[in-house]
Amino acid sequence: MKKSILTGLFLSVFLVVISFTAEAQAKPVAKQTYKDFVGANPNWEADLKTVGDYVNALAANDLDKAKSLLSENYKGFGPSPKDSATREQHIERWKEQAKSQLNAKTTFVSETFRVLQGEQIGDWVSVWGDWSFTQNNIIVKFPYQFTAHISKGKIDRGIVYYDRAYIMETLGYKITPPAPAQ
Questions:
Q1: CA of 68: how far to CAs of 21, 25, 75, 157, in Å?
Q2: How much is the pLDDT for 37?
Q3: What is the pLDDT of residue 35?
């Protein structure tokens, strides 16, 4: 009798588990969509202006204006994953660059969006365009992409991508591959 009670109890538990498992599998998991993660930036006009003014200030070598559009805790990244800079380091790099790169010009388009959840939450502006300058009588023109996070009307994070090797080759530098390992 003990054996049949235990068998019945085991069978009952087994059937309940199967029932819950089948019910859980029958309910489809709600698929998240783009709209669950990204929405309209309510500050779109001001944020587009901030980033546009910043990029144009860099091209005009108006580094005081460019600096004023960056937050004090600004962190910039790119073009490679190892490159990063604080606001002060970033502006100092532009000052050094301005000594040899003349007649900087840019054309670009931009768009803005709000990330609703996750590590990148907040308002963003993406810029993609062309940058050009003259160095040693050589005109260099290349595409770039810049994405900026805006907080309290200032850029607090920026990520830029462009092909640094193309620029160096255009200026006449030769890229030498490493010697084969022996």
A1: 59, 55, 14, 14
A2: 87
A3: 87
- 120 with 113: CB under 8 angstroms? no
User: Where is 108: in which H helix or E strand?
Assistant: strand 102-115
Question: Is residue 181 predicted with pLDDT exceeding 80?
Answer: yes
With bands split at pLDDT 50, 70 and 90, how would you rate the model's confidence at 30? confident
Q: To which H or E segment does residue 34 belong?
A: helix 34-37
**Residue 167: CB partners within 8 Å, gap ≥ 6?**
140, 142
**CA 11 to chain CA mean position, Å:** 55
Strand pairing class (138-151; 122-135): antiparallel
Architecture label for domain 50-170:
Roll (3.10)
Alpha-carbon distance 122 to 71, whole Å? Answer: 15
